[in-house]
Design a protein that fits this description.
Radius of gyration: 15 Å
Structural class: mainly alpha
Order of helices and strands: HHEHHEH
Largest sheet: 2 strands, antiparallel
Helix content: 55-70%
Strand content: 5-15%
Distance between the termini: 27 Å
Shape: globular
Number of helices: 5
Strand order of the largest sheet: 1-2
Number of strands: 2
């Protein structure tokens, strides 16, 4: 089922969201200081391209520096990427078939706003293996 949802997702919204994350990552990588932000954008972009079967978990070792960097991310790129998820999610929820895809868009909003200090893992991976 997740493969079918991923294929429908890819056609209806995943590819366009991926391009948005790719653009954000390229713009952020222009400066040396922005490279960690760009890498985070690429990581989330891959997750936004194929989200079903994966989830995000908070890293316990992230700490206060991660929070401070997330605030900078929110100002530079997070707000715009989250807005893309909101608009796409609303558009997808108009049809019955699009409702699961719209919900997936809404689930991507927190990671698009605060990506640092999170890890993307498979949903079938046990909690003991996540570390």
């Amino acid at each position: 089922m997740k493969t079918i949802l991923n294929l429908i997702w890819l056609v209806l919204s995943g590819f366009w969201l991926f391009l948005g994350y790719l653009l954000a990552g390229l713009l952020l990588c222009v400066t040396v200081i922005g490279i960690p932000f760009g890498v985070a954008a690429f990581r989330i972009g891959a997750y936004a391209l194929w989200p079903f079967g994966y989830t995000t978990v908070e890293r316990r070792d992230a700490g206060a520096p991660s929070f401070l960097v997330n605030v900078v991310w929110l100002i530079l790129a997070g707000w715009w990427l989250a807005l893309g998820h909101i608009l796409t999610g609303i558009a997808l929820c108009v049809t019955i078939i699009g409702i699961p895809l719209g919900i997936a868009n809404f689930k991507l909003i927190p990671v698009s706003l605060f990506p640092l200090g999170r890890e993307i893992v498979r949903t079938d991976q046990s909690f003991t293996q996540r570390g």
